[in-house]
Amino acid sequence: MIASASVFPQWARTKGPEGVAVSSLATIDGTIYAGTEVNGVYVSTDDGLTWTARNAGIETLEVTAIVSTPNYLFAGTFGGGVFHSTDGGQSWIAPSNGSNFAVTSLVIDGAYLFAGTIGDGVQRSADNGATWTAKLTGFLGFDALCHSGDKVFASASNYTYVTTDHGENWSNVQPLEGASIFSYYCQGSTIFAGGRNKIYRSTDNGSSFTPIDLNFDFGIVNIYSITSIGATLYAATSYDGVYQSTDNGTTWSAANTGMGPKDVRAITATGASTLIAGSHYVGIYRSTDLGLSWTKSLSGFPAGSSILSLLVDKSNLFAGTRDGVYRSDDEGDNWMKLGGTNDTTHYGDAWAICEFDGDIYASLELYFNSAVYKSTDNGDSWIRCAGAGLPADLSFIKGLAASGNNIVAATDEGIYYSPDKGENWFATNVQGLNVPSLVAGGDVLYAAVPSGFGVYRSADNGVSWTVSLQSTVDYVEVAALDNYAFAGAFFGGARYSSNSGSTWFASGGFPADASVFALGPVGNGMVLAGTDQEPSWIYASFDNGASYSPYSEGLSPRAPVEAIAVSASFMYAGTDYNGVWRRENPFWVGIADTPAEFPGTFSLAQNYPNPFNPTTVIRYQLSVVSEVALSVYDLQGRKVRTLVSERQAAGSYQVRFNAGGLSSGVYFYRLEAGGMHAVRKMILLQ
Questions:
Q1: Which pTM was predicted?
Q2: Which residue segments constitute the domains of the chain, with CATH numbers given?
Q3: Cα(45)–Cα(31) distance, rounded to whole angstroms?
C-alpha cells in the first residue's frame, strides 16, 4: 500500500463543528466568566463577543460553579474541589488539603463559603477554601445553594433545607418538600427556586413558597438558572431554551428566537439589555435586545461540539451533532452548518447518517421524536421522508445503513427497513428492542442489541434477522469491513469475527471492564476503538481486532469518542464535547492490494518473515540515485531504528533488521528516497 508522507502523526483537532459545553456563568465587575464541561474557565471582557481561556493552575477542567468575594474568585470543579484566584482568574490555586469534591454549586454567606457536592454533602469553609467541614450530609448530591438575608438554602433530591446560623443547624423547608430544585435567584426578600416544570416563588425570604407552572413545549423541563434585567426575569431551561417573565414570575413565555429548544444550563445579565446564555451542547448564545433574539458567540473557544455520528462520502465529511448536521469538504479544515427548514433539521440531534443511491439520509430527533430526512444536494436542504410504517411515538433512530435496495433503521423499538428510500417502512422480526447501532459489511448487516441480546445478523438486506452473537453483556456498537465484523460492549470490551459473524472471538488488550462505544475499520488489519478509558480514549488493533493497544497520542485528555469514520487520507474521531479530531491514515491507499510501488521501479516490499523473531529482511528498489532513509517506528510514531541513511544508486537492495531489545508488537518501516515515500507494517513476536 502507498502511504502518506508522515509516518504516524498524532491526533489533531479539526476546526469544527463549532460548540462548547457550558455548565455555569457569572458576571463579576463587568467580566463574564464561563465554566465549561471540558475546557475549564473562559472569560469575556467585551460583553460576550470574544472569549479567552483562563486555566493556569486549574487541574480539573469541568467547572460547575463560579462565585466571588471582593478579594477572591472561586471555581467549583467536578472531582477537583474548589480552586481560588486572587487575580481575576489569571492564575488559580488548587485546594491544599486534598478536598477533591465533586462540586455542583457554590454560595457566599458573609465570611463563609458553602459548596454543594455529590457524595460529600454541603461543605463549609471559613478560610477562603483552604479547609472544609461537612455541615449537611446524608444525601447523594446537593444540586443548588442559595443565600438570602440571614439564610442559606440547600436542595438535594426532593428535599430542601435551610440554616440561619451559617450551617451549624438545618431544618426542612416544608413548602419545597417533594420538589426537585436545580437553581435559585434572589431579589431582596423575593426568592425564585427553579424546579422541574415549575418555578417556586417566595416573597418572605423563604418562609413560604408558591409553585408556578410553566407551559413548556416539552413535557419534562428543568430550570437550571435564573437572572433578571430590570423587572424582567429570564430562566434557562433544559429542552426549551430561555423563558422570560415580565410580571414577577407569574406567567412565562419562550424567548429563544435564534437559539431554538436548547438545553441551556446557565444565564447571566451583563448590562441594560445584554444577556449571555450557556448551552450544554452548543455553547454561548448572546442577546443584545433583552432576549428577543439570540446569536451564537463562540469566538475564542476551541471547536467543541458533541458528535453523534460521522460519514465520509466522496470528498465530503458529514458530522451529526446535537445542533443538526455539519459538512466539511476540505477534510475538517472548515465546516458548514447545513440548512434546516424546521426546528428538527436546524436544531435536532443527528444520531445517524448514511449514503444511499447518491443521496444523504440522516435521522434527526427533537423532543424525543425522531424521523428520517433525505438530502439530494449534499445536505444543503432536507426533506422529511414520509416514514409510513414507523411507530408514531419513535424516540430514537440511532442507526441507518444501506443494503441492496433497502435503507435499514435501528430504533428504540426494533429494526425497520424501507425499499423505497424512506417513504414506506416495514417491521422486521426484531421488535420491541432498543437497537443503538447498525452497520453493513459486504453483503451482511449487523445490529447491536443490548440488555443481553447480543449481536444480530441479516443476510437479506435487513428483511430478517438471526442471532449472531449471544451474550449476557450489553453490546452497543457494531462495525464491519468485508468479511470482518466487530462489536463493542458496555463494560465488556470488544469481539471480532473473521467470517461474517458466524463465529466470534474476544479482543485482547483492553483493560478489565472497558466499554467500547465506537468502532471503525481502517483496512489492512487496522481497527480503531473508542473507549471509556480516560485518557486513552482511542485504542487501535493491527490484527483485525484480535488485540488492541492505546492510540490516543495528541487527543485531548477529555475527549470520549462517540463516532469514527475513515477516508483515504485521514481517520476521524467524533468526540463528546470536543468536536472532530483527525489523524493521518497510515495506509493512504494508492494501489490497493499490491506492493508499495510508485511509477518506475521505486518500491518497498513486505518484510519476510512476518511476523518475525527477532530478525527479518526488508527489500526495496530505487529508480534513480537518491538520498535514502529507511527507518522503523513504533505505534506511537517514535523512531526506534535507523536502518539506512545514505546516498544510493538505482537498483535493488535488502536490509536485515534485528529487533533485539524491542518489545513484541506492531511496528512500521518507512522508506524515503527521491521525494517519494512508502510505509509498511510488520509484527514482532518475541
A1: 0.84
A2: 1-16+507-594 (no CATH), 597-684 (2.60.40.3080)
A3: 5
